[in-house]
Write a structure and sequence with these properties.
The complex is a heterodimer of chains A (117) and B (111). Chain A is mainly beta. Chain A has strands at 3-6, 11-14, 19-21, 23-26, 32-38, 44-50, 56-59, 62-65, 75-77, 86-93, 105-107, 111-116. In chain A, strand 5 and strand 6 form a beta hairpin. Chain A starts with a strand and ends with a strand. Chain B is 0% helix and 58% strand. Chain B has no helices and 11 strands. Chain B has strands spanning 4-7, 10-13, 18-25, 31-37, 44-50, 53-57, 64-70, 73-79, 87-94, 101-102, 106-110. In chain B, the strands form 2 sheets. In chain B, strands 2, 4, 5, 6, 9, 10 and 11 form a 7-stranded mixed sheet that branches. Chain B starts with a strand and ends with a strand. Classes of the chains: A mainly beta (117), B mainly beta (111). At the A-B interface, strand 6 and strand 11 of A face strand 5, strand 9 and strand 10 of B.
Chain lengths: 117, 111
C-alpha cells in the first residue's frame, strides 16, 4: 500500500537558519503530494501542494518540489522564524488506491520543528 | 480559523461513559472525515462521509460510532472506550478532490 516516510524529529534551529525536512513516498501511479503544518493547540493547515512531477509548491517562504525519479517531496525554507515552530506533516493522495473515496490522505508521522530566537 | 469547528475541545471520560464529539463545517463542502492522532503515530483516517453517505470505515472498533445527519455536521459517538483510545480526534472537510480543511481537534482522555 501507499506510505510516506519523513525524517524523524525533533529538529531545532536558530532563527534565520536554513530548513530541510525530508519526505519520501511509496505509491503506485501518480499521487498528489502535500505538506501540512500543525501549530500548537490547533488542527492541521495545508501549507503547500504539488499535483504532478516537477511541480513546485510554495507558500509563506516554504517550497517543495515533486521529484518522481527519487519519489521525494522535501520541504525547504531559506530563513526560518520563531513563528515557524510547529509539527510538519508530509502526505499523499492517490486516487488510484483510494477505492470508494477519492480523497483519502496518507500521512507521515510528522516532524516537530522548534526555532529558537 | 479554518471554517471547521469541533466541540468540545477537551474531554475526560471513564470507560463506562457515553459521550459524543461534534464537528461542524461552514464551507459548503460535501465530504467530512474523522482522524485519530496519537503520539508518535501517523494520523489515522477513521471514517469518511460523502454527501452524508459513509464511504470508508478504516476497521474502526464498534465502540466508535459516526453519524452524519447532513453535509455540515458530523458526530462521533463514543461508548465503552479504552485508555488506549486517548488521543486527539480531528475532523476535516473538503470538496471533491480538493484540499482538506481541519478543525482544531478534541483532546480525549479515557480514564
Amino acid at each position: 500500500g501507499d506510505s510516506v516516510t519523513q525524517m524523524e524529529g525533533p529538529v531545532t534551529l536558530s532563527e534565520e537558519a536554513f530548513l530541510t525536512i525530508n519526505c519520501t513516498y511509496t505509491a503506485t501511479g501518480y499521487p498528489s503530494l502535500f505538506w501540512y503544518v500543525q501549530y500548537p493547540g490547533e488542527g492541521l493547515q495545508l501549507l503547500l501542494k504539488a499535483t504532478k512531477a516537477d511541480d513546485k509548491g510554495s507558500n509563506k517562504g516554504f517550497e517543495a518540489t515533486y521529484r518522481k525519479e527519487t519519489t521525494s517531496f522535501h520541504l525547504e525554507k531559506g530563513s526560518v522564524q520563531v513563528s515557524d515552530s510547529a509539527v510538519y506533516f508530509c502526505a499523499l493522495r492517490n486516487p488510484r488506491n483510494s477505492g470508494g473515496s477519492n480523497y483519502k490522505l496518507t500521512f507521515g508521522k510528522g516532524t516537530l520543528l522548534t526555532v529558537n530566537p | 480559523e479554518t471554517g471547521v469547528t469541533q466541540t468540545p475541545r477537551h474531554l475526560v471520560m471513564g470507560m463506562t461513559n457515553k459521550k459524543s464529539l461534534k464537528c461542524e463545517q461552514h464551507l459548503g463542502h460535501n465530504a467530512m472525515y474523522w482522524y485519530k492522532q496519537s503520539a508518535k503515530k501517523p494520523l489515522e483516517l477513521m471514517f469518511v462521509y460523502n454527501f452524508k453517505e459513509q464511504t470508508e470505515n478504516n476497521s474502526v472498533p464498534s465502540r466508535f460510532s459516526p453519524e452524519c445527519p447532513n453535509s455540515s455536521h458530523l458526530f462521533l459517538h463514543l461508548h465503552t472506550l479504552q485508555p488506549e483510545d486517548s488521543a486527539l480526534y480531528l475532523c476535516a472537510s473538503s470538496r471533491l478532490d480538493n484540499e482538506q480543511f481541519f478543525g482544531p481537534g478534541t483532546r480525549l482522555t479515557v480514564l
